[in-house]
Amino acid sequence: QVQLIESGGGLAHPGGSLRLSCAASGRPFGNTVIGWYRQASGKGREVVATIAWSGRTFYYAAAVGGRFSISADDAKTTMYLQMDNLKPEETATYYCNEGGQFGIWGRGTQVTVSS
Questions:
Q1: pLDDT at 9 exceeding the cut of 80
Q2: 22, 5 Cβ separation under 8 angstroms
Q3: Looking at the chain, which runs of residues are DSSP E strands?
């Protein structure tokens, strides 16, 4: 069973950047959709960005397009989320996921955007 371990969260100023990492422990990511989700306090979890290995298809939520970039290494052991020009409303816990809603989730990493 794979475990997903996020890192890289922290405090960023508005307009700043952070890079999140998600390490797959136990086996590489499966040949499915992997991605990043976030959940702000008092709100539901929402998709941020995903990669579908089949066809190497990328998806970005409209709110982050052009500012965030999702990637993964060729060994399929680590996934990244580069976040630029961060906004205060993007303060949330960010989760790594394999396989969608009913798949495997990491425990999350907190991102706080504040001046």
A1: yes
A2: yes
A3: 3-7, 10-12, 18-25, 33-39, 46-52, 57-60, 68-72, 78-83, 92-98, 104-105, 109-113
Three-class SS state of 29: coil
Strand pairing of 10-12 and 109-113?
Answer: parallel
Q: Taking Cα atoms as reference points, which of 27, 78, 26, 25 lies closest to residue 51?
A: 78
CB 106 within 8 A of CB 5: yes
Specify the DSSP class assigned to residue 32: S
Coil, strand or helix at 21 = strand
Largest CA distance in the chain: 40
* C-alpha 60, offset from chain centre: 11
- Predicted confidence at residue 113, as pLDDT, reads 98
Q: What is the pLDDT of residues 10-64, one digit of tens each?
A: 999 999 999 999 999 999 999 899 999 999 999 999 999 999 987 689 999 999 9
Q: Give the tens place of pLDDT for each residue, 86-109.
A: 999 999 999 999 999 999 999 999
